[in-house]
Design goal:
This is DNA 3'-5' helicase. Helix content is 45%, strand content 13%. The chain is an alpha/beta fold and 709 residues long. Bound molecules: adenosine-5'-triphosphate and magnesium ion.
């Protein structure tokens, strides 16, 4: 029996009030580290143990898959191994949407075996609708489509708020039509189509209202319009709703997050009780002072007081350093002095900044883990094998069909592919049916016909194997017979890569699932939502220094935090132009700094390689906002009289922009950072490509596009 009284005793008065309020709608609006997440976990335990609410009637929504699994774990521990803890639904909004659509999607014409498209898949689908466009031209369109969906806007809606033209509307319509005809969903649809389901099917809405009697949402300040609408539908007349968040930590505006959602909560839910938590349990006063001195420059904030009993500790350090190598060296020296690797984290604004640290840490044998840029799932060989499996579960999956029909080459060029697809109108969209018709129709060259027949027979055989419940054998069969094994073995031997090992890891992961079609569907769904579940250890569970983007640090805490790259055009980022953009960057700064428990280091370089060229940097405006008495400064601030040898910054800023436009790769896929290419780290002419639009790549609801080449 869990000791609920002891748990309540461990809370302060306001937190306890929040746990005990289970009637009126509840808004907990409070600053960083004040125990909002702790309130949610305690509420769940309290509801089960004291209020007798059946665990399965509780839904908790978190921002990342990692947060969800941590919350599950916490609740389990609190309930002292009570088996019912597992029955709570603790998920992200997107994973909840997938869960709902798998159950009831058929009511709105969605097969239960639908595939969830990631950003790349969605782009390929859009490209297939508009073959005359280059992918590079379609990327911004796709981004805008996702943005529209996050805002809850369908192609038929009035899109004027998006500032788009008629062409966009037509493209959005065509994309949506195609996606629906194939029967798959993209990431944003997990929310959008769930809304559609609940709006159109009163029976399902009723089921949901009976199912959940308590809904709790963490990090509510980052919910977008679509999630807001979904939540509104989920909360039935007899349901208790509690949301917690911090308007100062809203950092996903570029993905459609609306800070308004949290501030207007009491207007939507009448009789709302608002509780503010004012004690920060995480950081020292020195650290909070720095965070507050910057965030107070944002206008229109909700008034909040935050105090801490941790008045001891040393002042945060502000280090002016030479360049990114020096930055990595300084951090390394500090880390090596006490070897508190596990308790330390390096936070940066863009993924590409990790490279200098990784190179230095490797050289000095400092253990580290990079969180964010997804490695495994994004690898070409893994995506290939998965494409075969997706196609196996859904023979209308055109994107994956196109990816694999001629990979490795089996004589089916673009002409043959067009001929095959031209049979679409005579089928229900099944690509295998089209293949059959094309083979019978004698319209393919001998070579293409042989390739098509082979591909079709291979899948027929695989389907039979799956029908027999031989999932692992079936996956091995497809990987081998499709030619992937030979293809990647050859590449491995040429380049000393480990691609075959990754294919093996994929099958290993699959082997822990039920060996039926259901097992495969569950595997693919979990993978789509959280690639780290792929039987591979989560990088965050490894030992060592954490390297992480600021976006990814939501909700986390570390004893010691290094905030790197505090320079104009890097942080705040170069895409920040309007006041709103700057305010968002300021909130990111606030999130970053408030991750620290005891030690904080702010780093600012005078020069840095941008697109492979040296750029002279100007200190971040956020540093100017920190009262000089709050930090210990080391080194000389660039731009001051002592910094001889550097040109004036205005002209250098110009020069930097020239570098950027000269060297910016054509296919930038990002709003906040775009693709960054940095060359020549550690003397190697290595190229790293990182797509930083999803700095928050691992942050759960978004699809990871971060990739190392
Ligand atoms: P964030 O805004 O960063 O998400 P939060 O408000 O969710 O932060 P928590 O993560 O719940 O804050 O709590 C911050 C830290 O303070 C955690 O280590 C937590 O265990 C601790 N904490 C919270 N409440 C108390 C308390 N009453 N007594 C002691 N420690 C507490
Ligand atoms: Mg939290």
């Amino acid at each position: 029996m869990a000791d609920i009284e002891a748990m309540l005793d461990a809370l302060n008065d306001q937190q306890r009030e929040a746990v005990l309020e289970n009637g009126r709608p509840l808004l907990v609006l409070a600053g960083a580290g004040s125990g909002k997440t702790r309130v949610i976990t305690t509420k769940i335990a309290y509801a089960i143990e004291k209020l007798g609410i059946p665990a399965y009637k509780i839904l908790a929504v978190t921002f990342t898959n990692k947060a969800a699994s941590e919350m599950k774990q916490r609740v389990k521990v609190m309930l002292d191994g009570n088996a019912r803890a597992d029955e709570c639904t603790i998920r992200t909004f997107h994973s909840f949407g997938a869960w709902l659509l798998r159950r009831f999607g058929s009511e709105i014409g969605l097969a239960s075996n639908f595939t969830i498209y990631d950003d790349d898949d969605s782009l390929s689908l859009l490209a297939s609708c508009f073959p005359n466009y280059k992918k590079r031209e379609l990327e911004p369109v796709m981004r805008k489509i996702s943005y529209a969906k996050d805002r809850g806007l369908r192609p038929t809606d009035n899109l004027t708020s998006l500032k788009v033209d008629g062409t966009f509307k037509r493209m959005y319509e065509a994309y949506e039509r195609k996606l629906r005809s194939i029967g798959n969903v993209d990431f944003a649809d997990l929310i959008g189509r769930s809304i559609e389901l609940l709006e159109e099917k009163p029976g399902v809405l009723d089921w949901v209202h009976h199912r959940f009697s308590m809904i709790l949402v963490d990090e509510y300040q980052d919910s977008n319009a679509a999630q807001f609408n979904l939540l509104k539908l989920l909360v039935g007349p007899a349901c208790f709703i509690c949301v917690v968040g911090d308007d100062d930590q809203s950092i996903y505006r570029f993905r459609g997050a609306e800070v308004r959602n949290i501030l207007s909560f009491p207007e939507l839910y009448h009789g709302t009780r608002t509780i503010k938590l004012e004690q920060n349990y995480r950081s020292t006063k020195h650290i909070l002072d720095v965070a507050n001195s910057v965030i107070k420059n944002n206008k229109g904030r909700h008034d909040k007081k935050l105090w801490t009993a941790k008045t001891k500790g040393s002042k945060p350090n502000l280090l002016y350093i030479q360049d990114e190598q020096d930055e990595a060296m300084r951090v390394s020296n500090i880390l090596l002095s006490d070897k508190k690797f596990n308790e330390s984290a390096v936070l940066y604004r863009t993924n590409a900044q990790s490279v200098a640290f990784e190179t230095m840490f490797k050289r000095l044998s400092i253990p580290y883990k990079v969180v964010g840029a997804l490695q495994f799932y994004d690898r070409e060989e893994v995506k290939d094998a998965l494409a075969l499996l997706f196609l196996l579960t859904n023979e209308k999956d055109e994107v994956n069909f196109k990816r694999m029909i001629n990979k490795p080459a089996r004589g089916i060029g673009p002409g043959a592919l067009d001929s095959i697809l031209s049979f679409a109108s005579q089928t229900d969209g099944s690509l295998f049916a089209m293949l059959r018709l094309a083979i019978q129709g004698n319209i393919l060259s001998t070579k293409a016909k042989a390739g098509a027949s082979y591909f079709l027979r291979m899948f027929e055989h695989a389907q039979a194997m799956l029908g027999e419940g031989e999932l692992v054998d079936c996956a091995n069969f497809l990987i081998r017979e499709a030619g992937l094994l030979d293809y990647y073995q050859e590449l491995d031997s040429q380049n000393s890569t480990g691609k075959v090992g990754n294919l093996e890891a994929l099958v290993n992961a699959l082997s822990s699932y039920d060996s039926s079609l259901e097992g495969l569907l569950l595997f693919l769904e979990q993978l789509s939502l959280d690639p780290t579940t792929l039987g591979r250890e989560d990088p965050r569970d490894k030992e060592g220094v954490t390297l992480i983007t600021m976006h990814n640090t939501k909700g986390l805490e570390f004893d010691r935090v290094f905030v790197a790259g505090l320079e104009e055009e890097l942080f705040p980022g170069r895409a920040s132009e309007s006041d709103d953009d700057i305010e968002e960057e300021r909130r990111i700064f606030y999130v970053a700094v408030t991750r620290a428990r005891n030690e904080l280091y702010l780093l600012c370089a005078r020069a840095r390689k941008i697109w492979g060229r040296t750029s002279y940097q100007h200190p971040s405006r956020f540093l100017d906002e920190i009262d000089s008495s709050l930090v210990s400064v080391q080194g000389i601030r660039p731009g001051s009289l002592h910094a001889s040898g550097f040109e004036g910054f205005s002209s250098l800023g110009e020069k930097r922009r020239e570098h950027l436009s000269a060297a910016k790769p054509s296919s930038s896929w990002g709003s906040s950072g775009g693709s960054l290419i940095q060359k020549g780290f550690g003397g190697n002419a290595k190229t790293f490509t990182m797509k930083t639009v999803h700095d928050e790549a691992d942050a759960g609801p978004l699809f990871p596009v971060g990739q190392r080449v």
